[in-house]
Amino acid sequence: MSQLATLTYMPAEHLPVLASELTAVLAPQPGETAIDCTFGGGGHARLIADRIGPTGTLICIDRDPASEERFADFAAGAPCQTRFLRRDFSGGLCDLLGEGVRADMAYLDLGMSSFQLDNWERGFSYSYDAPLDMRMDAGQQLSAADICNEWPQARISSILRRFGDERYAGSIAREIVSRRPLESTADLVDAIKAGMPPAARFGAGHPAKRSFQAIRIAVNSELDQLEDALPFAWRVLRPGGRFAAIAFHSLEDRPVKRFLGDLARGCICPPGLPVCVCGHEPEAELITRRAVAPSDSEQASNPRSRSAHLRAAVKLDSESGSV
Ligand SMILES: C[S@@+](CC[C@H](N)C(=O)[O-])C[C@H]1O[C@@H](n2cnc3c(N)ncnc32)[C@H](O)[C@@H]1O
Question: Which residue of 136, 223, 252 sits with most ligand 1 atoms within 8 Å of its CB, as the best mutation to test the pocket?
Answer without folding.
Answer: 136
